[in-house]
Design brief:
By secondary structure, the protein is mostly helical. It is built from 6 helices and 2 strands. Helix 2 runs antiparallel to helix 3, helix 2 packs parallel to helix 5 and helix 3 runs antiparallel to helix 5.
Length: 135
Amino acid sequence: IILEVDSLNYATPATVSRCGMVWFSEDTVTTDMALNHLVRALSKESSPDKSGTETVPAAQTNFVASVRQYILSEGSTSLVVDALDFAMKEEHVMEATRERLLHTFKALMVQGIGMVVAYDENHPDFPMAGEHMEK
């Protein structure tokens, strides 16, 4: 079993002694590294189609390709990095960490991909094109 956590705040000595744990501090994994991983993961995550076969829908691939420029920085900072920096400076009810904000961002991206895939499945004659996704 592999678990991914954002901190070891609640890990007991028994958990640590019985499990092999790999922990990276926030300084080790940069925001760009985390966003690159996110884009790769979103591009490859497959879901079962109507026949039960695991596939990556074309709508998902197109969606990730169309928003990639906003997620990854190519020379300058990206929109997501700028938004993350802004969010980290704001006051929050709960403790805001980069990992928590990126996890929330991933959840929103997965939801958006699901909506695009559902739209394309329900409208096979008029699939969502890249120009619609960019808007």
